[in-house]
Design goal:
- Among the domains are: 48-207, Rossmann fold (3-Layer(aba) Sandwich), CATH 3.40.50.980; 471-585, GMP Synthetase, Chain A, domain 3, CATH 3.30.300.30.
- The protein is 33% helix and 23% strand.
- The protein has 16 helices and 27 strands.
- It is globular and about 70 Å long.
């Protein structure tokens, strides 16, 4: 071993997991093609969407047609195209078609507010957009502020459905979707694909591993949303590492792709890892507790990956009562902390429903696509997020330095390996602050997460060093919400905190001080709430607005949000105690 190779005490805990892997210097789509041919599963199902499915051979053909269509509308190498979609065949096909022509996919949450979408498009320099007809109104509202976008491709759920379901959709949900106008630069997805069938020129550009292929969004380590530049190697390494560390992924088996495509976990694990390893990805466009049981019964997936909220839904749904989960071969939780209590409940639920596996917790950051650490298949330490993937190294350092702390001591979690991002888009200062070359010559991601490692290499996540709210697996940054609220003409100042929630883990609460002379009327409250709904994504929207005459402050004049957090915790404790007392008296 090279003297500069980091310590890796976790290797002794590997079972059926190789210490190292060989990563091909090819694009994401090339890896899928190569593995499908070499693995002889071209005629296996690549994905299923609400009962409609296609084989890997058909999927590869669709991607190539879509790639030709991209060339037909003028998309070239390194152009950025925004994909603002849920998990649908069009979104997956477009993602890989952009990879084929050497362009970059800019992945955006379709429930983002208009202003957020505008920033994502202009910040990335996107020249085209793929979105759904139901979200088109947002793009129409900002069309004059995104002049570099020459083409908007508009898809529909209906066109991806089986014939019978198309008719049902048309007379139910489809009736509520506004008709798409005819205007220059706007093209329906079906017409766009027809251009691909007619295109006769060259269209493939096979990007190498270290070339940027994807932009995902995260708060990075400082709480400000940033575009994260990820390469083909990042995604391909993740797909290979996840399969190796998971020690259960088999071609032809079924992956439930319920995590969204614009999320690193959804795109990297439930889609790219699945397709690169020959699985059938069941694409779920929208998560619903009511339909969760039906999906599990219909498809009997072998692999489920999701945030703790998704698994909590397993326990809440009455429709899960007689569910047989003996089909499960891997259950993975990530995107947020899985409490020891929830793990015990989920494990008991899985056992009661004939599953032979336990839930396995992973950990990672979008700066490394997603997971880079996972609890072993047959061994669990309470409170631990597991051990690093092959070729990925973790170490704990004193915050703000590269000085490694002893085993058992808290510090900042740092990660190094082949999934480490290229950098932050248009942000060299933050990139330099997050990606640091240590004395061992390796580049390490300083995650901004507080954690600890024991002597066997098991990692324990504690909390964010910097302030952040995690709700249903999404990273929410209070400073961004406060900027939006403070921008209202009647608001003097505001602060937002995360309040514990049994379902979402945390939910957002906003505290507001109105400007002098402004009265706290119902009309004022409604106007501020409307302002927030227009500018804040639904998943980040405060569940409650509390109006105060003033907010607690620190000695240097900053809002003491920790005081507010403490007040909310005391309020929750008091409510629980009151309910307990009432129950005892009755």
């Amino acid at each position: 071993m090279n003297s500069n190779t980091p310590k890796a005490p976790w290797l002794s805990s590997y079972e059926n997991v190789p210490h190292h892997l060989e990563y091909p210097d090819i694009s994401m789509f090339e890896l899928i093609e190569k593995n499908a041919v070499q693995g002889c599963y071209l005629h296996e199902k690549a994905y299923d969407f609400m009962g409609k499915n296609i084989t890997y051979l058909e999927f590869i053909e669709d991607v190539n047609i879509c790639a030709k269509a991209l060339k037909a509308i003028g998309i070239k190498k390194d152009d950025v195209v925004t994909i603002c979609m849920p998990n649908t065949p069009q979104a997956v096909t477009m993602f890989y078609a952009l990879n084929v022509v050497g362009a970059v996919s800019n992945m955006v949450h379709p429930l983002s507010a208009e202003g957020e979408i505008e920033n994502y498009i202009n910040g990335s320099g996107s020249v085209a957009v793929l979105t759904m007809d139901m979200f088109y109104g947002k793009f129409d509202a900002i069309k004059d502020r995104i002049p570099q976008v020459k083409t908007i491709i508009c898809a529909s759920i209906k066109e991806a459905l089986p014939t019978v379901k198309k008719q049902v959709f048309k007379i139910t949900k489809g009736r509520k979707i506004a008709k798409i106008p005819k205007r220059p630069g706007l093209i329906r997805y079906s017409d766009f694909m027809e251009k691909g069938r007619e295109y006769k020129g060259e269209y493939r550009y096979n990007k190498k591993g270290d070339e940027v292929a994807v932009i995902l969004y995260s708060g990075g380590t400082t709480g400000t949303t940033k575009g994260i530049l990820l390469t083909n190697m990042n995604f391909n390494a993740l797909a290979m590492q996840t399969a190796a560390a998971g020690d259960c992924i088999i071609p032809g088996h079924i992956m439930l792709s319920i995590m969204p495509i614009f999320h690193g976990f959804g795109l990297g694990v439930t889609i790219h890892t699945g397709l690169a390893n020959g699985c059938t990805c069941v694409l779920v466009p929208q998560f619903s507790v009511d339909t969760y049981a039906e999906i599990l019964k219909k498809y009997r997936p072998n692999y489920i990956a999701g945030v703790p909220t998704l698994f909590e839904a397993l326990l809440r749904s009455k429709k899960m009562k007689d569910l047989d989960l003996s089909c499960l071969e891997g259950v993975f939780s990530g995107g947020d902390s899985l409490s020891a209590e929830l793990k015990k409940k989920v494990d008991a639920f899985l056992k009661d429903h004939n599953a032979s596996v336990q839930i396995r917790e992973g950990f990672g950051t979008t700066e490394c696509v997603t997971a880079s650490c996972l609890t072993p298949k047959n061994f669990y330490k309470e409170g631990s997020i597991g051990i690093p993937f092959p070729d990925t190294y973790y170490k704990i350092v004193e915050p703000g330095t590269d000085k490694e702390v002893p085993y058992g001591q808290d510090g900042e979690i740092c990660i190094s390996g082949p999934t480490v991002m290229k950098g932050y888009m248009n942000n060299p200062v933050e990139t330099a602050d997050t990606l640091r070359t240590h004395s061992d010559g390796r580049v390490w991601v300083h995650t901004g997460d507080l954690g600890m490692m024991d002597e066997e290499g098991f990692v324990y996540y504690k909390q964010r060093i910097n302030r952040m709210i995690i709700s249903s697996g999404y990273s929410i940054y209070p400073s961004q919400l406060e900027n939006i609220i403070d921008n209202h003409p009647m608001v003097l100042m505001s602060t937002c905190i995360g309040v514990p929630d049994p379902y979402k883990i945390q939910k957002v609460k906003a505290f507001i001080v109105l400007k002098p002379g402004v009265k706290e009327t119902a009309k004022v409250k409604a106007d501020i709430k409307k302002h927030c709904e227009k500018n804040i994504a639904k998943y980040a929207m405060p569940y409650e607005f509390e109006y105060r005459d003033s907010l607690p402050q620190t000695l240097v004049g900053k809002v003491a949000y920790t005081v507010l957090e403490k007040e909310e915790l005391e309020k929750i404790s008091a409510e629980k105690a009151g309910k307990k007392q009432e129950k005892q008296e009755n």
